[in-house]
Amino acid sequence: MKVLAAAAVALVLALPASAANVEHGKQLFGQYCVSCHGPNAEGATGQRYGGTAGRDNQILTGLAPSLHGVGALAADFYLRTGYMPLKRNGIQPRRSKLIFGERDLQDLIAYVASLGKGPPVPQPDPASGNLAQGLHQFTDHCAGCHQVVAEGGVVTGALPPPLEDATSTQIAEAVRIGPYVMPTFSKKAISDAQLNSIIAYVQYAKHPDDRGGWSLGHVGPVPEGLVTWFLAAAVLVAVCMVIGKRLRE
Amino acid sequence: MTMTRKVVRFVDQRSGSAPLLRKIARYLFPDHWSFLLGEVALYAFMVLVATGIYLTFFFVDSTKDTVYHGPYAPLQGQHMTEAYKSVVDISMTVKAGLLIRQTHHWAANVFVAAIILHLMRVFFTGAFRKPRGLTWMVGVTMLMLTLLEAYMGYSLVDDLLSGMGLVIGYSVGMSIPFIGANLMEWLFKGPYPGQHAFWPRMYILHVLLFPILIAVLLSVHLLLVAMRHHTQFRKKRSQSNHTIVGVPMYPGQTPRSLGLLCAVVGVLFLLGGLVQINPIWLWGPYHTYLSTNGAQPDWYLGWLIGALRLVPGFDVVIGNYTLIPNPFWGGALYPMFVFGFLYFWPWFERRLTGDHAFHNLLERPRDNPLRTAVGVWMVTWVLLVLIAGSSDRVYVLFDIPYVPQIWFYRFFNLFFPIVAGFGAWWVCRELQKGEPVEEDRELAEAQARLAAWSSRRQSSET
Amino acid sequence: MSRAKDILLSGLVLVASRGRRKPRKDAARIVPDAGPNPGAETAAILLLFLSGLCGVAFVVVYALDRIPHQTQFLGLAIGGAFVLLAAALITTGLKLIVTEELADEYPPNEHPHEQQLIADVVEESGSRLTRARLFKLGLAAAGGGVAAAALTPAVSFGPFLRIKYFFGTPWRPGRRLVDENGRPWKASDIEEQDFYTAFPENDPDREALGAALVLVRLPKASLRLPAELRGYDADGILAFSKICTHAGCAISLYRTPKFAPDSPKPALVCPCHYSTFDPAKGGRVIFGPAPRPLPMLPLSIDKQGYLRARHNFDEAIGPSWWGVRNRSANP
Question: What is the pTM of this model?
Answer without folding.
Answer: 0.91
